Amino acid sequence: MTFLQALVMAVLQGLTELFPVSSLGHAVVLPHLFGWDIDQHAPQFLPFLVVLHVGTAAALLLYFWRDWIGLALAVFGIAPRGERAGRLRLLGLIVVATIPAVILGFALEKFFRDLFGTPVVASVFLIVNGCLLFFGERLRRAGRSVRKLEAMRWRDAVIIGLWQSTALVPGISRSGATMVGGLLSGLHHEDSARFSFLIATPIILGAAVLEVPKLLHSGGSFGPVAWLAGAVAGVTAFLSVAFLMHYFKRHDFEALDPFAWYCWTFGAVSLALLLFVL
Fold it and tell me: pLDDT (tens digit, 9 = 90+) per residue, 132-182?
């Protein structure tokens, strides 16, 4: 992997991990469109991926630092009496929503990546992801009344966690699926995005940590390019989440539609290029 390729992959990770357009789908499709011959079994590739995920998780922790400090203080009983119960409940909802993806990801991630992790299939599922976002908006409008995050029910957290698990398929966005799950549970776009990013933090960080034993076993090492790419991914992710939270705060009507149109366009163009040109 060249230095330029590493930087492009870092920016791609920081953008598409949080935007509802599927980071895994783009990571599968774009290298083939660019004609990059990236050896994913090379000893330096795994450390590279680990640092990218750590950079993204660090950006989420930094942006939502007030939430995480508040949750930590509640756990240790330091939070104000009137706020502690609400913070502990939010922490419980985050844990509950994280469990399905952890279990299914641990059991089925390799199966899904081997079965669906080809550029053509990933392009198809990017189009499917666009449909998920588009029709999720319409179902939300026709569905139940809107509630705040503080009023989320435990079963809603389970359902959002199951939606998150669909991102095991390359082309399906984790953030997009969880946002749709939040909308169908009655949350505003802003609260749905906030909860999506909160549950993303342990998932992304955990995915990186789980790769460490493989890294140690393979004898891989973290080079300067990997650390620079991680920093780039972190900065890009921070700017991405800042933009998205501002966007969803100002738009609570068909806010996912632009991302749906993007997925349809990118998926269709990529599919055509892969089938008829490349």
Answer: 999 998 887 665 556 788 888 999 999 999 999 888 888 899 999 999 999
- 55 to 10, 47, 60, 196, 200: CA distances (angstroms): 9, 12, 9, 18, 13
What residues does 122 pair with on adjacent strands? none
Cite the DSSP H helix spans in the chain: 3-16, 23-34, 45-63, 65-75, 81-116, 119-142, 154-165, 174-184, 189-218, 224-250, 257-276
Distance CA 274, CA 32 (A): 8
> Which residue(s) pair with 147 in the sheet?
187
CA–CA distance, 133 with 127 (Å, rounded to integer): 10
187 burial type by CB count under 10 A (0-12 exposed, 13-18 middle, 19+ buried)? buried
CA distance linking residue 215 with residue 59, whole number of Å: 23
Nearest to 122 by CA among 256, 30, 46: 30
- Residue spans of the domains in the chain: they are 49-231+242-276
Positive or negative: CA dihedral 51, 32, 28, 258: positive
